[in-house]
Design goal:
With 139 residues, the protein is an alpha/beta fold. The protein has six helices and five strands. It is elongated and about 65 Å long. Pfam families: Rhodanese. Keywords: Membrane, Transmembrane, Transmembrane helix.
Length: 139
């Protein structure tokens, strides 16, 4: 008890930190439009999901998810016609961290795509999970 009285700020910091972690865990669990790298791999392998990388060309060239289609974020709406055959299939959007792809996912949903997912953590989360990265250009 004496330790807590003398170090109340550390205890408060630990409580606040724990609350943030708990809040984030609850928020993530309720978000079915976001996939972990493992969940994304399962969707790719089991449901033939299309992966769309929305980063800029220079970022894409440095490494991307194997067989990912490259459509920069700024061109998603204009190039949505290229994705018509995927309207009923799962589409996973990816960027560097998950922020840009979240906006792209919202755009595709607005355009009527049914099964759109955002890759949690983007390519960095993908690599952290030990998933493969390719430097080949998809045709």
């Amino acid at each position: 008890m004496e330790f807590l009285q003398q170090n109340w700020y550390w205890a408060a910091l630990a409580a606040v930190s724990g609350a943030f972690l708990l809040f984030d865990a609850i928020r993530q669990r309720g978000d079915s439009s976001s996939l972990s790298p493992v969940q994304a791999t399962l969707k790719i392998n089991r449901e033939d999901a299309l992966v769309i990388d929305v980063r800029e060309q220079s970022e894409y060239a440095q490494g991307h998810i194997p067989n990912a289609k490259h459509i920069p974020l700024g061109a998603i709406e204009q190039r949505a016609g290229e994705l018509e055959s995927y309207r009923e299939r799962p589409v996973i959007l990816c960027c560097a961290s998950g922020a840009r792809s979240s906006g792209a996912a919202a755009t595709l949903r607005k355009l009527g795509f049914q099964h759109v997912f955002n890759l949690q953590g983007g390519l960095s989360g993908w690599q952290s999970a030990g998933q493969p990265v390719s430097r080949k250009r998809k045709k």
